[in-house]
Specification:
The complex is a heterodimer of chains A (413) and B (291).
Chain A lengths: L9 H17 L1 H8 L3 E7 L6 H20 L8 E7 L4 H13 L5 E4 L3 H14 L2 E4 L16 E3 L4 H12 L5 E7 L2 H17 L2 E8 L10 H6 L4 E5 L3 H12 L2 H4 L1 E6 L2 H7 L1 H4 L3 E4 L10 H13 L7 H20 L4 H10 L1 E2 L6 E3 L6 E2 L2 E6 L12 E7 L17
Helix pairs in contact in A: 1-2, 3-14, 4-5, 6-7, 9-11, 14-15
Chain B lengths: L2 H32 L6 H19 L2 H22 L10 H22 L15 E3 L4 E3 H23 L1 H11 L1 H6 L4 H23 L9 H16 L4 H21 L6 H13 L13
Helix pairs in contact in B: 1-5, 1-8, 1-9, 1-10, 2-3, 2-4, 2-8, 2-9, 3-8, 5-6, 9-10, 9-11, 10-11
Classes of the chains: A alpha/beta (413), B mainly alpha (291).
């Protein structure tokens, strides 16, 4: 190997350094690992497909979290590296990429995944290999006892938290509620959450329509939804499905008849279809940049993101990338390295405040207890600037009361 | 289930079918006349939507976008035919298929680089915002406009093909290009025009779909699958087939959505399977027609 050969001349030396760097690149996993200095975090996310906009924001924010730690000298002198992989929003693809990250790239932990089905696949792989996984998908099936392991952490909000907060703001006793729901885990869980909240408030369910995931046209569901004559229409889908469904509902004059409510209101989708369409739509969120007037942490996070991204503001799903990776790195810092058991311990004890206030992982199911925002999309004339998208209707402080109980999830208590 | 709901549902299906028809039409014309399976059709649909949006914002009017984008993208289609497709005539059907498949990736990636991969808002033209009271329910004005416009385009296209000399040459050229050449017709120019027309129709479909769906670089891939299903059901190369099958698929999706909404997308593939079992050449296809 050129690396170990004699290096009498400077020129030859630089040439050899170049050569060995080239060789290292070619045989990357093997040579890169030899030193085992860097801490590697695997980051599967759907860079292509209908959630691509959200996924890209996640990557930007995850990179920011890594950069901030590296700027401070890394963890115990070790640099952190983020290995981003496109899971293509496909469970099989995600499982393969995750397995590669663990076996070939020897990552120390995995953070990521956006879709619930993909998160399940990633969790299955990491659980079997005993690798820590911090999920930033809005589904909490992995918190339930059957899928849970001590390596499983859930940083994102869950359906129960957002639907309860949104329902509290929008539903009243005796109101009629209809649902348009994406026919896969995310939609089903959001529907379950809304129905539970609805029952508690005393609102009536007048009907549910399940639509195929990723449909481009929602017009065919509108006549029936309108014939149900509800006061509130809950649209439980994600990404471009949300933008398209709301747009077409508005085209059909749905908003004149009823209020539109979503479990999670998405920054990027609001941008994709414009203020007129989203005007008055209410939804839950983990983060909104406008929180900076209420929270010093939010202001600091916004500033760091702006500095690293040419003045752009962080989005809701982006913030997950930051807090997911950030909390893991904070735990590694506290554990003094990457020893899995020590990091798990540290994560369980961690109190972290990265984007919006204090958060912690609940011991029994590793769900992050955190605040929930309820946002209303502003009308065009009320927007102070291009980024002034939402009004904050509520900022519910994090508490265990927001979550399903540990016994409900099947954990021994 | 009351009657007005069923009629509203039927209308939604026709509006959905209208976009399918206009998109499948371009695909089927190009296949029928040139024997080219254009896998870039969906990407050109998407480019059409972006071009329409861009031209509309440039001129301040949706109508200029609607008029100019299909012409401009149609001309771009002619350039594609002239520079790329032309060289592959007479070779196996796979060659242009692979070429256009590659082209679609380049187009999608190009749009991602220029406009980003987030969707862009495409506002409904102000004159067509809102709903029309049909007496039995409200229906979006814009969708009624789409149905009407597609009907007009179909009529013009049919009259041109059936009643004019140009139409005669095109139809004859599709049947026997060699004889046409012997008769002194420059068949290369006919093919150039046909490919341009096919691409222009894809772009028109894109502009029309813009205000209904979010405009994003991937919007063509789903449409491509739908257009192929419609083309296969109608019979490859058949214009009447594309129209009938497009409406059939739209209405089936809509009616199934009423009773079993989860099945709404699958129904078009089920329809295709049934048609292929009974009539492998499609409803209006000619048996044994190959490229």
């Amino acid at each position: 190997m050129p690396k170990s050969g004699p290096t009498p001349k400077i020129i030859r030396r630089t040439a050899l350094v170049g050569l060995s760097a080239g060789a290292a690149l070619l045989a990357m996993p093997r040579l890169g690992r030899a030193a085992d200095e860097t801490i590697r975090i695997g980051f599967p996310t759907p860079l292509t497909g209908p959630f691509a906009a959200e996924a890209r924001d996640q990557v930007k924010c995850a990179e920011l979290a890594v950069k901030l730690v590296n700027d401070k000298g890394g963890i115990g002198g070790r640099k952190v590296e983020l290995l981003v992989r496109d899971d293509k929003l496909n469970a099989g693809e995600a499982a393969t990429r995750t397995l590669e990250l663990i076996e070939k790239d020897k990552v120390h932990a995995v953070v990521g995944a956006l879709s619930s089905a993909v998160q399940l696949a990633v969790n299955e792989v990491t659980r079997a290999r005993g690798v820590i996984y911090v999920s930033i998908s809005q589904s909490d099936t992995i918190n339930e006892a059957k899928d849970f392991s001590k390596y499983t952490f859930h940083e994102a909000l869950n359906p129960h938290m957002t639907t309860a907060a949104v329902a509290r703001q929008t539903l009243k006793k005796g109101m009629k509620v209809a649902h348009l729901v994406a026919d896969y885990a995310y939609g089903h869980e959001m529907l379950r959450g809304f129905k539970r909240a609805q029952a508690a408030i005393g609102a009536d369910n007048v009907g549910e329509i399940l639509h195929p995931f990723g449909a481009a046209d929602y017009s065919t569901f509108m006549p029936r939804l309108m014939s149900m004559r509800p006061d509130v229409l809950c649209i439980s889908n994600f990404g471009r499905d949300q933008a398209n469904a709301i747009k077409q509902a508005v085209d059909f004059g749905v908003k004149q008849q009823m209020k539109i409510v979503v479990p999670v209101i998405l920054h990027n989708q609001r941008l994709a279809v414009g203020p007129d369409v989203f005007e008055g739509v209410v939804g839950g969120a983990n983060y909104y940049w406008g929180l900076e007037t209420q929270s010093k942490t939010a202001a600091a996070f916004n500033a760091a993101f702006k500095a690293a991204n040419g003045g752009a503001i962080p989005t809701d799903y982006g913030a997950y990338g930051y807090s997911g990776v950030g909390s893991l790195l904070a735990a590694m810092q506290a554990a003094g390295g990457t020893d899995t058991d020590k990091v798990v311990d540290a994560l369980e004890k961690l109190q972290y405040d990265l984007t919006k206030g204090l958060q912690h992982y609940r011991k029994c199911d590793h769900q992050s207890v955190q605040s929930v925002l309820v946002l209303e999309s502003k009308k065009k004339s009320a927007m102070a600037g291009d980024n002034d998208l939402f009004a904050i209707l509520a900022n519910d402080a994090g508490s265990d009361d927001m979550l399903r109980t540990c016994s409900e999830l099947g954990h021994a208590t | 289930m009351d009657l007005s709901l069923i009629i509203m549902q039927l209308l939604s299906g026709i509006a959905l079918g209208a976009v399918l028809v206009i998109t499948a039409l371009g695909l089927t014309i190009v296949f029928g006349m040139l024997g080219v399976v254009n896998f870039a059709h969906g990407a050109l649909f998407m480019i059409g939507a972006y071009a329409g949006l861009y031209l509309a914002s440039l001129t301040g009017s949706f109508w200029w976008g609607l008029l100019l984008a299909p012409i401009l993208i149609g001309a771009f289609g002619m350039l594609i035919e002239f520079v790329l497709i032309r060289r592959l005539y007479g070779r196996s059907i796979d060659d242009p298929l692979l070429l256009t498949f590659g082209l679609s990736y380049i187009l999608v990636e190009g749009v991602r680089i220029v406009f980003g991969s987030d969707g862009i808002p495409f506002p409904t033209p102000p004159q067509l915002i809102g709903v029309v009271d049909l007496g039995i329910g409200f229906f979006p004005r814009y969708r009624l406009f789409v149905i009407a416009l597609v009907a007009v385009v179909l009529l013009v296209l049919w009259l041109t093909l059936e009643k004019t000399r140009v139409g005669l040459i095109v139809r004859a050229g599709a049947r026997d290009p060699t004889i046409m050449q012997v008769l002194g017709v420059d068949i290369g120019r006919v093919w150039l025009a046909i490919f341009g027309l096919g691409v222009g129709l894809a772009a028109l479909g894109g502009v029309l779909a813009g205000p209904m769906r979010s405009v994003n670089p991937e919007m063509g891939s789903l449409v491509l699958a739908e257009a192929f299903v419609v083309t296969v059901i109608g019979g490859l190369g058949s214009i009447v087939g594309a129209v009938v099958a497009g409406l059939m698929v739209g209405i089936s999706i809509s009616m199934v959505a009423l009773f079993a909404p989860e099945m709404a997308t699958i129904v078009m593939f089920a329809l295709m399977a049934v048609v292929l079992l009974i009539r492998p050449q499609g409803l209006f296809g000619v048996r044994g027609r190959t490229a």
